[in-house]
Amino acid sequence: MPAKGKHRRTKTQRLTRTLAVAGTGGAALALPLLGAAGAHAAPAQSVTVSASAQAAQKTTYTVVAGDSLAKIADDQHVSGGWKKLYADNRDAVGDDPSLIRPGLKLTLGGKAAASTDSAESSGTSAQTEKTEEAGKTETAGKTETAGKTAETAAADTPAASFVAPVAGGTVGTPYHQSGSMWSSGYHTGTDFVVPTGTPVQAVGAGTVVSAGWGGAYGNQVVIKLADGHYAQYAHLSQISVSGGDAVTAGQRLGLSGATGNVTGPHLHFEIRTTPDYGSDIDPLAYLRSQGVTV
Question: Could you tell me if 250 and 202 are in contact, meaning their C-beta atoms sit under 8 angstroms apart?
Answer without folding.
Answer: yes
